[in-house]
Amino acid sequence: MTDSKPNASLTAPSIHGDALPPVEQHAQQYATVRNAHETELIEDYVELIGDLLTHRGEARAADIANRMAVSQATVSKMIRRLNELELVTSKPYRSLFLTEAGQKMAETSRARHDIVLHFLRALGVKDATARIDAEGMEHHVSDETLDIMQRFTEQQQKS
Amino acid sequence: MTDSKPNASLTAPSIHGDALPPVEQHAQQYATVRNAHETELIEDYVELIGDLLTHRGEARAADIANRMAVSQATVSKMIRRLNELELVTSKPYRSLFLTEAGQKMAETSRARHDIVLHFLRALGVKDATARIDAEGMEHHVSDETLDIMQRFTEQQQKS
DNA sequence: CAAACAGTTTAGCCTTGGCTAACAATGTTG
DNA sequence: CAACATTGTTAGCCAAGGCTAAACTGTTTG
Ligand SMILES: [Mn+2]
Ligand SMILES: [Mn+2]
Ligand SMILES: [Mn+2]
Ligand SMILES: [Mn+2]
User: Under the GO molecular function aspect, what terms does this record hold (chains A, B) (predicted)?
Assistant: First the structure.
């Protein structure tokens, strides 16, 4: 449960960087990341489907495969999963649509994604880089940090 | 290869948010994230082993399991992989050590992790939240963004 | 209206990263 | 030094998320 004991003296000033966090806190960090990894691909799919519906009027499996640079078989399998999760509705060989729950997830994900992207641009990151970084970072940003990012971006825009 | 055609008028002002990026750029975003996911767990292990060696003098499988909140079997299996990748050396039932390549990876990961963590704190994020966010974000931050974060943190500290 | 083409699905394979249960080795202590 | 506690390994299971190949459906067009 606890770490093996450090055998160094108890009070000597550390020559190293930050100390290790307490075990429970450290474990929480990793657990939160593992958790995010379970949902992030789902979020990206739902967000993309929402964007395609908004900007193109329809969301076809082939478009998703191209946009994600993934095989159509992979998309087809994922769509089955999204169906089981009741996030999308689909008739065979037809465009996809989002359920109520799917729309909610798409909006939330899109909003969060935009906050992160706009924040990175406000920081001075080039657009192409900001887009790449935001695609990964978005799933690992807490609400607290998100708020701070949003305020930062607004401040930046006023000046 | 290309999206299905939008049938909306060509020049009408969009009532929606940001337009979709070009397919190739969009695909690059997702591909970069998938790539990061292949290496991030490895990086976390190597970084943690380095930290344990630095702060505790040894890195035992049980400590890793506790710190990551994961079973010992999972750690044991991952250590075999790290061995195959020649990032760690291990004798059965003995502490782990990092190879040259492992030390290099540990340093790089630790440095990047610290930049992200210190940046979040400089932004005003509470320590516990910053630690959680940094654990996930670190793997999705480009060198360009990392530079900007570091400069931001330094600026913040001067004032 | 029949082909050809484009899009979708299914089957079967692989790797990663989790888990539990059982067993083996090592360390501690009465 | 024997028993017990801790630590490490192995085996076998599972789900997720990739892939290719092949079959099937729907659309376009000669
Ligand atoms: Mn997204
Ligand atoms: Mn994303
Ligand atoms: Mn890290
Ligand atoms: Mn990490």
Answer: DNA binding; DNA-binding transcription factor activity; protein dimerization activity; transition metal ion binding
The whole-angstrom separation of Cα A40 and Cα B112 is 22
- For residue B159, give both structure tokens: 């004032």
Longest dimension (CA), chain A: 69
Regarding pTM above 0.90, the answer is yes
Q: Which residue has the tokens 């979020």?
A: A43
Q: Which two tokens stand for residue A69?
A: 């640079």
Portion of chain A with pLDDT greater than 90, in percent? 84
Angle at A132 between CA A38 and CA B122, to 5 degrees: 85
Using CA atoms, how far apart are residues B101 and B87, in angstroms rounded to an integer? 6
- What average pLDDT does chain A have? 92
Provide the CA A82 to C1' C18 distance, Å, integer: 22
pLDDT digits (tens, 9 = 90+) for B8-27: 433 455 677 788 999 999 99
Instruction: Give the pLDDT band of residue A104 (cuts 50, 70, 90).
Output: very high
Does residue A77 come out as left (phi exceeding 0), alpha (psi in the -120 to 50 range) or beta?
Answer: alpha
> DSSP alpha helices (H): ranges in chain A?
23-56, 61-68, 72-84, 100-123, 127-137, 143-158
* Domain boundaries of chain A, sorted by first residue: 23-158
pLDDT tens for B27-40 read 999 999 999 999 99
Judged by CB atoms closer than 8 Å, whether chains meet at A30 and B145 is answered as no
- Is CATH 3.90.228.20 the right assignment for the domain spanning B23-158? no
Interface contact flag, A23 B67, Cβ < 8 Å: yes
Instruction: Say which amino acid occupies A41.
Output: L
C-alpha–C-alpha distance, residues A8 and A15, integer Å: 12
Report d(CA B120, CA B140) in Å as an integer. 15
The two three-digit tokens of residue A137, written as one number: 């970072």
